[in-house]
Design a protein that fits this description.
- The chain is built from seven helices and six strands, in the order E-H-H-E-H-E-H-E-H-H-E-E-H.
- It is an alpha/beta fold.
- It has a six-stranded parallel beta sheet with strand order 3-4-2-1-5-6, sandwiched between helices.
- The protein has a single domain, classed as Decaprenyl diphosphate synthase-like (Undecaprenyl pyrophosphate synthetase, 3-Layer(aba) Sandwich).
- Helix 4 links the parallel strand 3 and strand 4.
- Helix 2 runs parallel beside helix 3, helix 2 packs across helix 7 and helix 3 packs parallel to helix 4.
- Bound molecules: 3-methylbut-3-enyl trihydrogen diphosphate (2 copies) and magnesium ion (MG).
- The site of one 3-methylbut-3-enyl trihydrogen diphosphate (IPE) has 10 residues, from helix 1.
Length: 238
Amino acid sequence: MPDSQTGPKHVAIIMDGNGRWAQTRGKPRLFGHHAGAKRVKEIVRACPDVGVKYLTIFAFSTENWKRTQTEVSGLMSLFRRYITGEMKDLIAEGVRVRFIGDRPRLDAKLIKLMDSLEDATSENDKVHLTIALNYGGRDEVARAVKEMARDAAAGRLDAETVDETTLAGYLDTRVLPDPDLVIRTSGEARISNFLLWQSAYSEYEFIDTLWPDFTKDVFADCVARYGVRDRRFGGVKA
Ligand code: IPE
Ligand code: IPE
Ligand code: MG
């Protein structure tokens, strides 16, 4: 197990490969999404064992609306079911849940469930689970800049004082540390608009495993490999 000094405190995961996992079994894509949701439970539960305090997962991107209506509505109903079904255990297990992304575009029933899960877990501190839902890194920066422009116009923000910290304070992730490690499953080596600002100095792991096959042992291996990396942040090794 990594110690708290060298292990990643914040791991972010691009959970990819559900569709291909289902296709190889001759099943519809939604079958893969349901299998993927089960893995989410397992990985959230494994966080304390591997020393991960913050887990951020990419559940639905601002680009995923391009999928068929069947898949999109199936995913939305899966999110509602996940929140309703997991609420009790998440509260009991000390998980604090937050959502990032453009919330108003989602349906009212889902927004209500998201708000209630955030409220119900707001006192928890064991694991901080952030679910990126209708999230896009560029969209997040654009919304932040819009809010900054509003504040500047209203005299609440002095443009001359704006720096990196100011912008970070307008992002959805403002209360979270930057991810130390970003994992993408399914063999694709791209970011797909995930945490663009926040992952400037993150380590990346691109692994072939499809998300529904991502067990807590695979997770533990990724965390262990992170422990031997040498992060320099632009400096030189001491
Ligand atoms: C990731 O799996 C889950 C979401 C994007 C919602 P995919 O659905 O992208 O699975 P593949 O990449 O098509 O296999
Ligand atoms: C990224 O996966 C988004 C999520 C995991 C929610 P995609 O499957 O949507 O990304 P692309 O299309 O391969 O870039
Ligand atoms: Mg995919």
